[in-house]
Design goal:
By secondary structure, this protein is α+β, with helices and mostly antiparallel strands. It is built from 6 helices and 3 strands, in the order H-H-E-E-E-H-H-H-H. A 3-stranded mixed beta sheet has the order 1-3-2. Helix 1 (about 10-25) crosses helix 6 (about 130-155), helix 4 (about 90-110) crosses helix 5 and helix 4 (about 90-110) packs across helix 6.
Length: about 160
């Protein structure tokens, strides 16, 4: 007898169901903008980052979470969070994500041509635990596996 997990399409449908359930729950925000802003301010102080940082919550961000300088406001940065992913994060994981993005802000202001994920993490680790960052990366990898399984199953 063959078990149900040996059917690739069934695994894809289960993964898709999980993604859709997460997206369906994205209407109930786990982390309110005020809470996110408070964490940003706390981590900026802790990491020695004086730049102004704004947030935006979006339904889709190909990078999941990203930061960039605001073109219309010199010296101001914006962190963009994909709502569905944001809602999967616990409090420590949220702090790790924000610390990582603030690491990119630090790089933008000190060594703008050295942007790497590893450097942003090394800056973030001054303020958050590696275990929290590891959990965030596992969630990112799980999401990527679901997306690649879905695209592989479409013919």
């Amino acid at each position: 007898m063959t078990d149900c997990w040996s059917y690739p399409n069934l695994r894809v449908w289960i993964a898709l169901s999980i993604v859709l359930a997460i997206q369906a729950n994205s209407g109930t925000e786990r982390h309110k903008p005020a809470k996110i802003k408070n964490i940003i301010e706390e981590l900026k102080r802790q990491m020695g980052i004086p730049q102004e940082v704004e947030i935006s919550l979006v339904s889709k961000n190909d990078l999941i979470v990203s930061v960039q300088p605001r073109k219309e406001r010199s010296g101001v940065y914006e962190i963009s969070f994909e709502r569905a992913f944001l809602n999967t994060l616990g409090d420590e994981e949220l702090r790790a994500v924000i610390a990582h993005e603030l690491g990119h802000v630090w790089i933008f202001t000190h060594h703008p041509y050295l942007q790497t994920e590893a450097l942003a993490n090394s800056i973030a680790y001054k303020a958050v635990k590696t275990e929290a960052m590891d959990r965030v990366y596992e969630k990112v990898r799980a999401r990527t596996r679901v997306a690649s399984n879905l695209s592989a199953s479409v013919h």
